[in-house]
Write a structure and sequence with these properties.
It is a single chain. The chain is mainly alpha-helical. The protein has two domains: about 80 residues, 434 Repressor (Amino-terminal Domain) (Orthogonal Bundle), CATH 1.10.260.40; about 45 residues. The chain is about 65% helix and about 0% strand. It is built from six helices and no strands. Helix 4 crosses helix 5. It is globular. The relative contact order is 0.12. One of its GO terms (molecular function) is DNA binding. This is DNA-binding protein. InterPro entries: Lambda_DNA-bd_dom_sf (IPR010982).
């Protein structure tokens, strides 16, 4: 989970551009509910999402990653030294995608547990 997402910076940036979170979500192909989770520090951004936000907001990817929270990955440009130019880049991107899927699944399991508990509690009240 990202820590310290800078809502004000992102909101101000969108307002300065005359755009909305809906526009941003559409531009990066993210459901609005997922973007809301990012805004509330409940979801991290992937490298591709950081790139998409940077392009949409006309800001450097490094700044978007920094403003998105301490655990947000900073995308590297193709041809830069390091992992991006190596054979590991596709593997690392796939791992990043899988980590986000796992995060969504864990949230869904938590929601299901809460619903089950609520059903049990409400069922017990009806029996008495």
């Amino acid at each position: 989970m990202a820590l310290f997402f800078d809502q004000k910076w992102f909101t101000d940036r969108l307002n300065d551009m005359g755009r909305t979170p809906n526009d941003l979500a559409d531009a990066i192909g993210m459901p609005l509910i997922e973007l809301a989770a990012v805004w509330k520090d409940q979801r991290e951004l992937s490298v591709d999402e950081v790139r998409g936000m940077a392009q949409f907001l006309k800001a450097p990817a490094e700044e978007v990653a920094s403003r998105a929270g301490v655990s947000t990955p900073i995308p590297s440009e193709p041809g830069e030294a390091g992992v991006a130019g190596s054979d590991l880049a596709p593997v690392l991107e796939r791992l990043d995608e899988m980590a986000h899927r796992l995060d969504r699944l864990e949230r869904a399991v938590g929601d299901i547990k809460a619903l089950l508990l609520d059903t049990r509690l409400n069922g017990d009240e009806k029996d008495t």
